[in-house]
Design a protein that fits this description.
Elements (H helix, E strand, L loop, with lengths): L1 E7 L4 E8 L2 E7 L3 H4 L2 H11 L4 H46 L7 H12 L8 E7 L12 H5 L6 E12 L7 E12 L2
Antiparallel strand pairs: 1-2, 2-3, 4-5, 5-6
Helix pairs in contact: 3-4
Length: 189
Amino acid sequence: MKRFQTFDIWTGTMYAEEGFGSMSSSVTVCDSAAQHAPLIYRFLRFLKSRTEGSALVEMAVTIPLLMAIFTGLCFMGIAVDDYLILTHATDVGARYLAVGRGQLTDPCAQTITVIEQAAPGLSTSKLAFTFYIGPSSALGTSCNTTTDLGYMSAGATATVNIVYTYSFPIAFWKPVTIAMQSQTSEIVQ
């Protein structure tokens, strides 16, 4: 008969056994298991007691990433909505410019007013306008000269080009600025 001791490192229990190899006849639990615990047991128990915080660490790593993706998607949705508003306002402005032949004293300035009214969600300070009437080059925001108004003949092309500067913040990132452009051409009536 052989007497030997076994130590369960996960539960911290020391067993004293008597028997032949795997065929033990009696097993007694030692009361002083903690006193006989080797250093490796204490270290492994320390590691085991710290695994409950792993979910917290995983969450701390993934939450900023998910927030960045979520805010990016939200602000991208707002940017798409602003682009739809910009496209509609450009269409309204080009139609107003093309139909207003002979009735407008300063077609470009009056078209800007109509465009700003058609785009209520957009900041007017971030809008940049360019007008083309007939074969003329870019007219800017005013087209009240006789040469410009002379191009407003029936069958000519009136083009409105608008650039809207949009900046959207993403969580934990620097703000991204994009320039949205919309251009519409109409035949002058």
